[in-house]
Amino acid sequence: RPSAPLRVNMVEAPRGQGELLQVARDAAGLVVTQDRQSMSAWAATLGLDPGAALEGRARLDARRTIFASRPLDAGGRAARLSVFIVEDGAPPRRLFDIESPIAGRVTFVRTGQSVLVAWSTRTFAAPPTSPIFQDDFNEAICASEPRTRIERRDLASGALEAVADLKGRYVNAAALAATGDILLGGEAQAACSEARASVLAVDKDLRVRDLYRDASLGTSDVRALAALPDGRVFVAASKVSTVEYRPPAGAPAAVSRDMAARALYGGMTFLIGPDGRASEALMLDAGTTLTVDAADASDPQDILLAGGIGDRPAIFRLSAAPAQ
Predict the structure, then answer these.
(1) Does residue 276 register a pLDDT over 70?
(2) What is the pLDDT of residues 110-166, one digit of tens each?
C-alpha cells in the first residue's frame, strides 16, 4: 500500500471549549478561527432574531459573505430558510427564501456570477405497519433518509437558474475544483444502511457524478473540502473509530465498554487529484472523540484543519507531498 501523501506537523489547542467550526487565513496570513459561540455573536451583530439559527455561511470573495438563517415568525416558528448576502460591510440583504420547516445544513460556493446552494435535510417517516402483526417487531428500524436540493442562483437577484434533487445524500461542504466542477462532500446513505463519506462532482448544468465513496469499515461523512493551489482538493471526514479503547480493569465506567467503543469518532484525511482519484487516507485518532469541521489548504505545507479533541478545540496542521 502506498504511504499517505499527508502528514501531521502539529496540533494546537486554542483556549475555550467545544470544536472550531471555521478556520482561514486573513490578508496578513494570520490564522482566524470561529467556534459556535463566536458565530452566534457574529449573527447577532447583523440584527438577526435572537432565536434565529445560523445554518450555513461562506465567504464569496474579499467583499461579500453569504449566509443562511432561519428567522422566527410571529408564532415563534422557523418555517422558512432565508439566505442573506453582506456586501462591503453593509447591512445584510435578503437574497431569497426557501420554504422548509425542517432544519438542516446549507453550503455555498460561488461559480462566476452565480452561487450554488446545497441544502440538506433528513426526512422522517413512520415505517408501514403490517396488517398481520400487531406489534412493531417486524417494522423497519430506520425511519429517516437524507435528501439534498442543489440550486444555482443569480448572485445579484437571487433568481433560480437551475435545480436538482438528490435522494440519499447529505452535504456538509463544497469547493470549486480546478476543472470547473463543484465538489460536494458529505455522506451517501441507502435505505437502512450505514452512512458513508462521499464526494460528488457537479457541472454547470447540475449534472452529478460520484467522485469518491468510502468503502472501508464504519460510518463516515465528509466534513470539509479545501482546494490546493496545484489543483488537488484536501478532504477531511469524520469516521467512527474502529479501534476499541478499554478502561483499565476495575476502573469505574459510566457506560458499558462496548458502548464507549461505539461512541468514539476519529478523522480521515486524503487528497483528490485533478484526475478525480483519491489518495491513500491519513487517519487521525486520539483515544477519545476527535472532530473535524473546516479546513484551509491555501498553503500545501501548512494545511489548517479545525475541529476538536474531546471537549477542547484543536487545530491540526498538516503538510501535503508535492503532486506527482
Answers:
(1) yes
(2) 998 999 999 998 876 555 555 555 565 556 566 678 999 999 999 999 999 999 999
DSSP-assigned letter for residue 91: P
pLDDT of residue 261: 47
Spacing of C-alpha 54 from chain mean position: 14
Please list the residues that pair with 313 across neighbouring strands. Answer: 308
Per-residue cell: 131: 396488517
Of all residues in the chain, what percent are helix, strand and coil, respectively (each to 5)?
5, 50, 45
Q: Which of 1, 12, 2, 3 is nearest to 318 (CA)?
A: 12
For 295-312, b where at least 16 C-beta lie within 10 A, e where not — what string?
bbbeebebbbbbbbbeee
CA distance 56 to 26: 20
- Number of residues that make up the chain: 324
Burial of 53 (0-12, 13-18, 19+ CB in 10 A): middle
* Spatial separation of the C-alpha atoms in residues 226 and 52, rounded to whole Å: 28
CA geometry: angle 51, 56, 58, nearest 5 deg:
130
> pLDDT higher for 201 or 29?
201
| Nearest alpha carbon to residue 167 among 198, 151, 190, 139 | 190
Evaluate whether 284 touches 290 at the Cβ level (below 8 Å). yes
Walk across the sheet containing 312-320 and list its strands. Answer: 6-12, 312-320, 303-309, 290-296
Q: Residues 217, 220, 225, CA angle at the centre, nearest 5°? A: 130
Name the maximum alpha-carbon separation found in the chain.
Answer: 69
> What's the predicted TM-score (pTM) here?
0.84
- DSSP states along 140-161: -S--EEEEEEEEEEETTT--EE
15 — phi, psi (to 5°)?
-70, 150
Distance of CA 244 to the CA centre of its chain: 26
Task: Provide φ and ψ at 42, rounded to 5°.
Answer: -60, -45
